[in-house]
Write a structure and sequence with these properties.
heterodimer, A: about 180 residues, alpha/beta, 4 helices, 8 strands, globular, B: about 300 residues, 12 helices, about 15% strand
Chain lengths: ~180, ~300
Amino acid sequence: MESPTRKPKAHLMDADAIARALYRIAHEILERNKGTERLALVGIRRRGVPLARRLVARIREIEGQDVPVGVLDITLYRDDLTERSEWPQVERTEVPFPVRGRRIVLVDDVLYTGRTARAALDALLDLGRPESVQLAVLVDRGHRELPIRADYVGKNVPTSRRELVEVRLTEVDGEDGVYLFEL
Amino acid sequence: MGLRRKDLLGLQDLTREEIDLILDTAESMREIIDRPVKKVPTLRGKVIVNLFYEPSTRTRNSFELAAKYLSADVQSVAVAQSSVQKGETLLDTARNLEVMGADLVIMRHSEGGAPHFLARRLRAGVVNAGDGIHEHPTQGLLDLFTIRRRKGRLSGLKVAIVGDILHSRVARSNIWGLLKYGSEVWVAGPATLLPPGLEALGVHVTHDLDEALDGADVVNVLRIQLERQQKGLFPSVHEYARFWGITPQRLAACKEDVLVLHPGPMNRGVEITSEVADSHRAAILEQVTGGVAVRMAVLYLLLGGGGTGE
């Protein structure tokens, strides 16, 4: 995600708000799945990956159990490749556990049109047949173009299409925060 | 970021950054080959034509699998049974394929420059899968890919290319590629199989195999095409094996962790002994897998639709 040079229109979440949202989502994941049995988290590159790792750390704190975590690159599954002005760099998918029979929680930073989540579902199903797939996002900004809904949401933010939601995470951007920009 | 070109014709005109991009993309593609479901939908709806005027089972299958793993439709034209035999020109054949919807033509031809000729005239992309004794860029790239994986780098290595340099498009692509990374390239072979003027490229040329192997990090053993032997370019296969064959004893002059490459198919007991070919030093089968990954990367980066910066 390109960072606009303009000032943000709003500061939607600070580091504490992100931490509290992830803590709540970790609890919700454990509650819905009744523990960690057969549970695995898969982060969607790029910012879904540190979020998945943080959720796994929270789950370990709460439950004392390790949950496997994987990384999904969905570049090769996008349906808009030929519409893009730049050909995206393919990164590696690393899911170091069998997907078959697992309860998988896909993790991403922002849920918007739903196309990324759709591509991630395709990518995941090519690796095996999970028992179920759930979706966790830090921010849901609406404007779905596909029938996709998140199971766990850090914050719902009604936005206009002329706005941009940018999630910054320490692991990637050097700070934690969610900002709203005018396009 | 994509390759800002529609064709891949040789390593000579690729920049180091472009080669890095292809090799990095191939690393990601390599993972797909190990999956239970070896297929991603990336190039769905794209049409790739294999136009091979020379037989090449390995390269053709490698391109075909690469295209299929990316969900492209791939059509192989068997030139021997095609209208080429009825006198159709190369350009007419390719134009016909293009208007049938081909997005990319992969071409092997016995004449150097044939893919360049097509590339200038077609809207579709052209990938050179070997032209005459000129270049074989995807083989060069897969050799670089294998070296980078095993050695962790491409710079500052001593690489010896041994055998029939004269007829080898692989050798040329390797030389262009390796020199861009600042590796020290040595070529060694019988005088009849070394073309003149190689030194001008910046490689070391020698008729002394031991000099080329001394301290080498990588030995790329070229295939002897036995039909050349009929032309009298070397006295006998037995003599070739004795003077130029890569044996465990010969490898003693190289670094202990020397990497042995061979583009295949091998003449065991001629240019390479089975002892070497089957040892942990050789990466000959890894080259084959890497070849599919590199070709997937090339197809992905070239078939960028509107994204090639045209």
